[in-house]
Write a structure and sequence with these properties.
The complex is a heterotetramer. Chain B is built from 26 helices and 2 strands. The longest helix of chain B has about 45 residues. In chain C, α8 crosses α9. Chain C is globular. The N and C termini of chain C lie far apart (about 65 Å). The chains are: A mainly alpha, B mainly alpha, C mainly alpha, D mainly alpha. Chains A and C meet through α1, α2 and α3 of A and α1, α2, α3, α4 and α6 of C.
Chain lengths: ~100, ~600, ~190, ~525
């Protein structure tokens, strides 16, 4: 299988994630979509590492994984905070910064 | 001690006194002690003035000059003292009258609360300083300083009873009118400065006509020449001694003194002299007419002052400086006397109105006598002081061929005698009014100055010769037809006055005939015009302020407001919804990505 | 040929599960679909000769992140109980999202099509995991350390964020704190102004 | 000591502000004392400078250079010439009086004093700074705290919504303190933008090597460049000097500002504008100045009479004084536009005289407002009975503002008029003189309406005269008015020294250039 297949699949995965971010009302749903985005990127990194005969791509995947974990942790903390304050976690209702 | 030292003493002792009693508030609030200090200061000033005059008539001839750079180093903008016969004599006149008035005020203002009394004498001392500054001025610049300062003190003293709305009004009116006229002084000064680089009395410049016209405009304000005389009658709201000192004897005469001083300049300007002659003569006539119909004794005297100042200005316009200056001196004495005498009457009946007086001569023989002396001097009855100087003026007018002004002055002389007789008759003789029942003579502090001034009113005419010698003119009294005619006219006026307002109460037809004229004069056209002008000014101010507020500022606000509205619109973009922001990011990524890929 | 078939199957599962993860109305199911996506991704890693990554993906993502998210869903369950799961996991704004996503897909396809990637040939031997470790602690040591600091910060931050409201809810001594801690008080008041 | 005295003057308010930051906000006493001490040190420094400035030598003295950003030729160059001496004295006097006058402030004095002192440090900096960039920096430091000072400690005036932009009026809350603060800051910042453009134009036209103003003044700039840069500087700095039609921040701003801020703003800050026009605009760009002088003079004359006439029909006391400032700053600008020795001396002297006079005015207005709780002139009357001291000082300030001899105002106005006349600008001098007369009308009218007449109505029941430290402020300023009116050479000699050095170059430029309209036609 060529590099372009992986890149394409990763691209599709990314677009699905993008769609999710844009459309989900629930904050956890958005976090789920973010995971998809990160995964798409990871696939790309791994693919380029494989086809580019390097190891750095794999190392980056590790790093992004760690980053994602951090993101999920903080994100969930925020979601819980939001929930405590407002009793719901619908993003389109949490518009306190409306101008 | 040198002459300059004496002059400086005369100048700065009153200033020191004013500062001392003005700034040491507890002292000022005690009233009488402050007043006595002020009188002492005036006496020192008077003595110094006497020493200047006595000590050096020979030294005075060439003039003594002592200056110090004021705005810059050097003499161009210097201040100091300039002593010659003219200023030395004027210094004496001013300090003498001022001393008399201050002593008189001790009695006259006896009932004032102590703080007010302290304030009054602070102003009095300040006035003496200001007037001496003007008199001793070595150049026009210092003259202007003194000129403005006396205007200031005049404002403060007219507004002495500041709780009275009419006094407050009169004070600001006096200040505004004279200050407006002073624009002329200022313009004259800066023109002179631009032309000659200095402010010398003796400057020679091609712009002399313009400069002198401007100076004369200022004189019209300060010396109450038509049509800028309107402040003077109102200024009678001040205490009577103030009227005597400032608004009769000295301050209003400052204008005349200025012209005398600036004689070299005025000599270069024939046009200005003509204007002066006509304006002066007209004022003399006009004010005399108005004086005839006044019912307030101080107003009579105020218009009389206007009229007499007109005489002086006319004389100076004729080019006879000495005549004007002589009349200035004699007038200072007898008009101060008249005012102080009137003050004594007012003090007795607590009213300015002639109708509240009447028959006071019997109750107050001393005051009555001195008042009559003053009136006779003013009417030009020989050999009292007014006779000589007025005679000289009429003769000067005739000599210089100014026949129209001469005629006006002659009529004015008749009217002067007439209205003074009327005043004397109404106030001192005739049927006593209710208020006059309890009138009594004032104390010695008021009598003494009256006596001094009365003597001078009688005798000052004979000082003409020495005075001429002092100031470098020639003068000896000799009988002339014009002068004689003037005196005769005056006597007729007295007779007429006695006929109409004396025991006979004759001339009812004349009174009836002139009633409309009197009504018109009392209407006070110039005053009303000034009020209208003031109203117009306020209206213009309101319009401009409105434009500034709502149009000019409005444009600013409007442009700011447009941005505000724009901002309100743009604000809607910040929905506060996270996904909208993500959407914007995604959109940007797509757009830039498309641009990058499809390019 | 087998490889192609296998790849196709995995890719289909991957995309389908991802679509379900963003499409399903039930939040718990969405998270589980995400788990499938993540697991499928690890298949990709194996195909890309990255077995270490595949293992890590399974353990860390499918094990850790997934359970964390499920916890999140459970902790915020009350809202789903009150309003119903379906309603709350609804999507909105599809109409404006779809064009963007479509354009993005088109762009990616165009980009991949225009770029010549066929020359890249895969490496013959798969790298050893030891090399990865050496690389991390060698060339990328700084990034690694920074990352650990970041993780620490995230941990502390998460605790602080999640705990702060606890304290103010519990701290009933100060009435102002309680007022501030009341649901929506601050946000609603800000909205009014 | 001598070479660091200017640094001391500029730094002492800064340091005082820093020290105040360390004091707890509820301890008002130490805060006030620190604020006062900081100002007094500056004043003493200014007096030291005045005593030790060598007039015979003239020029820039007490010079000191601290490198700042050498790459762009930006150094902190402090040096004082004769103008600086006069204006340092002024700032020291006003600030000392201002800190006394705000002794009764109880609302957040800590922050108030910090901002005030920072502002004053900026003012001092502008007056002694000889580096264009730092000059601008200090200028901004002086201008910006005003926003907070007015917005927080200000008060509201009555402004009716009317006129063609009525709806706008209601929307903006015209007359409110936030509005005033915002308007002032925005207008001055627009001016600053113009200054910035002009500044960089000068910098790059001179080769982009140095911001040293003394060197820049010796550089000859192309005529075309001078012709467009000068108006930028004129209007930029002019917006702070209240040049028509950019004066409208001034009435609202001064009316809304608290006492000490009004004093400083009208007394010192507006001078920065005029000072900037002369120091940066005219001295560095002599040909531009000469070409634009007729326009500057005409607008200045308009300012004088327009401000005076507007002041005449104001009912709010602070607005009266604020418009009088607009009018008097017109005299400064007129003096500057004469390009004549007397005119320039008069302009700088007017900055000095007006600063003291208006400082006194605003101090008094603050006193009256605090006691009467009203600034509405028509409702007042007879106050002299209960507050004779205030009445006396108000009269004194009024006399100075209308140019009474014996007060500092006379010297300044007289010199400006003389200069204008001498330089042939008679057409501008006459409106300005009439404006001075109108000043007499409105000042005495206000005095009459407030202090004279029948005693205060029962609405004003707790009026009383100035107390304790307030007397300090009044006496300092009142004494200065009389002192510098009677002995003008105390300050005028310094000013003259500097003017004498700068003017020949300007005169040479003026001889070589026609008024701007003709130049553009060419």
């Amino acid at each position: 299988m060529g590099l372009e297949s992986y890149v394409l699949i990763a691209g599709f995965l990314f677009c699905v994630g993008l769609y999710g971010i844009l459309t989900r009302r629930n904050a956890i749903g958005v976090l789920v979509s973010v995971e998809l985005l990160v995964n798409a990127a990871n696939i790309n990194l791994a693919a380029f590492a494989h086809f580019g005969r390097g190891l750095d791509g794999q190392v980056f995947v590790l790093f992004t994984t760690a980053l994602t974990v951090a993101e999920v942790v903080v994100g969930l903390a925020l979601v819980i905070l939001l929930f405590r304050r407002r009793k719901d976690i619908l993003l389109d209702l949490a518009n306190g910064l409306k101008g | 001690m040198t002459l300059v030292t004496w002059a400086l003493l005369a100048l700065f002792v009153p200033l020191g006194v004013a500062a001392f009693i003005g700034l040491v508030v507890p002292l000022r609030r005690t009233g009488r002690p402050a007043a006595l200090i002020s009188v002492a200061g005036a006496l020192v000033s008077l003595a110094s003035a006497g020493m200047v005059l006595a000590g050096g008539s020979a030294a005075l001839k060439p003039g003594v000059h002592a200056t110090v750079g004021w705005l810059t180093a050097g003499t161009a903008t210097a201040v100091g003292v300039h002593l010659d016969g003219t200023s030395a004599w004027m210094l004496l006149v001013v300090t003498l009258v001022a001393t008399c008035v201050q002593i008189y005020s001790l009695g006259y203002l006896h009932d004032e609360p102590p703080p007010a009394l302290g304030r009054y004498f602070t102003y009095q001392s300040l006035f003496l300083f200001a007037m001496n500054t003007l008199v001793l001025a070595p150049n026009l610049l210092q003259a202007f300083l003194g000129w403005e300062l006396v205007g200031l003190v005049s404002y403060l003293l007219i507004g002495f009873y500041f709780r009275k709305p009419s006094a407050a009004k009169a004070a600001v009116k006096a200040f505004w009118v004279t200050k407006f006229a002073d624009l002329g002084f200022l313009i004259g000064l800066v023109t002179l400065y631009a032309q000659t680089g200095g402010f010398e009395w003796t400057a020679v410049t091609p712009a002399a006509t313009f400069v002198t016209l401007m100076l004369f405009f200022a004189v019209m304000g300060k010396s109450a020449q038509f049509p800028l005389h309107i402040w003077l009658p109102d200024a009678m709201e001040g205490p009577t001694p103030v009227s005597a000192l400032l608004h009769a004897a000295t301050m209003v005469a400052a204008g005349v003194f200025l012209i005398v001083r600036a004689e070299p300049l005025f000599e270069q300007a024939a046009l200005t002299r003509d204007v002066m002659a006509y304006v002066g003569a007209f004022t003399a006539l006009f004010a005399a007419c108005v004086a005839v119909v006044q019912s307030d004794i101080k107003k009579v005297l105020a218009y009389s002052t206007c009229s007499q100042l007109g005489y002086m200005v006319a004389a100076l316009g004729a080019g006879d400086t000495f005549a004007g200056y002589f009349h200035l001196s004699t007038h200072a004495f007898f008009k101060a006397l008249l005012f102080l005498g009137a003050g004594s009457l007012i003090h007795a009946v607590h009213s300015n109105e002639l109708k509240d007086m009447g028959g006071l001569f019997r109750k107050m023989p001393f005051s009555g006598t001195v008042f009559v002396v003053g009136a006779l001097a003013l009417a030009g009855v020989p050999p009292l002081a007014g006779f000589f100087s007025k005679d000289l003026i009429l003769e000067a007018m005739h000599h210089h061929g100014l026949h129209v002004p001469l005629a006006a002055l002659a009529i004015a002389a008749f009217l002067t005698a007439f209205y003074m007789t009327r005043t004397v008759m109404l106030a001192l003789f005739g049927t006593p009014s209710h208020a006059a029942e309890h009138a009594h003579e004032p104390g010695i502090d008021m009598k003494l100055p009256l006596a001094v001034l009365a003597l001078l009113a009688v005798g000052a005419g004979f000082l003409g010769g020495p005075l001429a010698g002092l100031t470098g003119h020639d003068y000896a009294f000799h009988f002339t037809p014009v002068g004689g005619a003037g005196t005769a006219i005056g006597l007729v006026g007295i007779g007429m006055g006695y006929f109409m307002f004396g025991p006979a109460q004759g001339g009812a037809a004349i009174k009836r005939g002139f009633a409309p004229v009197g009504a018109f004069i009392r209407y006070g056209l110039m005053d009303r015009l000034a009020t209208v002008a003031y109203g117009i000014m306020l209206a213009v101010g309101a319009i401009i302020a409105w434009i500034d507020r709502y149009v000019i500022d409005g444009l600013m606000n409007w442009s700011g407001w447009i941005l505000l509205v724009l901002g309100r619109r743009l604000r809607a973009l910040q929905t506060g919804n996270v996904q909208d922001y993500v959407y914007a990011v995604a959109l940007a990524v797509v757009v830039f990505g498309a641009w990058g890929i499809l390019r | 040929m087998m490889e192609r078939l296998f790849f196709g199957a995995v890719a289909t599962v991957l995309i389908f599960s991802a679509l379900m993860a963003v499409g399903t109305r039930n939040l718990v199911r969405a998270v589980l679909w995400l788990g499938l996506t993540l697991a499928t991704t690890s298949m990709f890693y194996i195909m890309l000769h990255a077995p270490f990554l595949a293992t890590l993906q399974l353990i860390l993502y499918t094990g850790g992140v997934l359970s964390l998210m499920l916890f999140g869903v459970m902790l915020t369950r009350r809202s789903t109980e009150q309003h119903g799961v379906e309603v709350h996991n609804e999507s909105n704004g599809q109409r404006r999202a779809l064009p963007i996503v479509a354009v993005a897909v088109g762009l990616i396809v165009t980009a991949v099509g225009r770029t010549d990637l066929s020359t890249a040939t895969p490496a013959a031997v798969s790298p050893e995991t030891r090399e990865i470790g050496q690389r991390i602690l060698g060339t990328h040591l700084l990034a690694f350390e920074v990352l650990s600091v970041l993780l620490l910060a995230a941990m502390v931050g998460a605790i602080v964020i999640a705990r702060r409201k606890d304290a103010s809810l519990e701290g009933k001594d100060d009435p102002r704190d309680r007022a501030a801690a009341l649901p929506g008080s601050r946000l609603s008041s800000e909205r009014e102004t | 000591m001598s070479e660091h005295i200017l640094s001391v003057i500029v730094a002492s308010p800064f340091l005082a502000a820093l020290l105040i930051m360390l004091v707890p906000g509820d301890r008002h006493g130490p805060i006030r004392v620190l604020g006062f001490v900081g100002s007094v040190i500056s004043l003493l420094g200014a007096i030291y400078v005045a005593l030790h400035y060598d007039q015979a030598r003239g020029g820039m003295q007490f010079g000191v250079v601290y490198p700042f950003i050498p790459r762009f030729g930006i150094d902190i160059r402090l040096a004082a010439d004769g103008w600086s001496v006069a204006l340092l004295l002024l700032t020291g006097i006003i600030m000392t009086a201002g800190s006394l006058a705000s002794a009764t402030l109880t609302n957040r004095p800590k922050e108030f004093y910090i901002l005030l002192l920072v502002l004053v440090a900026g003012v001092f900096g502008v007056f002694v700074c000889q580096d264009l960039f730092i000059f601008f920096l200090f200028y901004e430091i002086a201008v910006l705290p005003m926003y907070l000072l007015i917005g927080i400690w200000g008060s509201k005036g009555k402004v009716a919504a009317a006129g063609p932009f009525k709806a706008v009026w209601r929307d903006l809350d015209v007359g409110g303190k936030e509005y005033a603060a915002m308007k002032l800051t925005l207008m001055l910042l627009v001016g600053s933008a113009a200054i910035l453009v002009g500044m960089f134009a000068i910098y790059f036209a001179a080769g982009g090597k140095s911001f040293d103003m003394i060197a820049l003044a010796k550089t000859h700039f192309p005529r075309d460049m001078q012709l467009w840069v000068f108006p930028m500087l004129w209007l930029g700095f002019g917006s702070l000097a209240g040049v028509f039609p950019f004066h409208t921040w001034s009435p609202d701003g001064h009316a809304a500002a608290p006492t000490a801020v009004s004093m400083l703003h009208a007394g010192v800050l507006m001078k920065l504008g005029a000072f900037g026009v002369m120091r940066v605009g005219m001295i560095i760009l002599p040909e531009g100045a000469a070409a634009w002088a007729p326009v500057v003079g005409a607008v200045a004359a308009l300012n004088v009479i327009y401000g005076a006439v507007s002041a005449m029909s104001q009912k709010d006391l602070k607005y009266v004084i604020a418009y009088s400032s607009v009018s008097h700053m017109g005299v400064v600008m007129l003096g500057a536009a004469t390009l004549d020795t007397d005119g320039w001396n008069g302009a700088v002297y007017q900055m000095f005289a007006h600063g003291i006079m208006t400082g006194l005015f605003f101090a008094l207005v603050g006193l009256i407002y605090e006691r009467a709780h009203s600034r509405w002139v028509p409702s007042m009357g007879g106050f002299a009975k209960v507050m004779p001291g205030v009445a006396a000082f108000f009269t004194l300030a009024g006399l100075s503002s209308l140019g009474m001899p014996g007060s500092a105002g006379f010297v300044a106005e007289f010199l400006v008029f003389a200069g204008a006349w001498k330089s042939g600008n008679i057409l501008w001098a006459i409106p300005a003189m009439i404006g001075a007369w109108v000043t007499a009308v409105y000042v005495l009218r206000a005095t009459k309406m407030i202090f004279w007449g029948d005693g205060p109505s029962h609405e004003f029941h707790d009026l009383h005269d100035a107390k304790r430290v307030e007397w300090g402020a009044l006496w300092i300023l009142g004494t200065c008015i009389v002192l510098f009116g009677c002995a003008p050479r105390l300050v005028l000699d310094f000013i003259g020294t500097a003017t004498g050095e700068y003017l020949p170059a300007i005169a040479k430029a003026a001889a070589s250039i026609a008024p701007v309209a003709l130049e553009i036609v060419k």
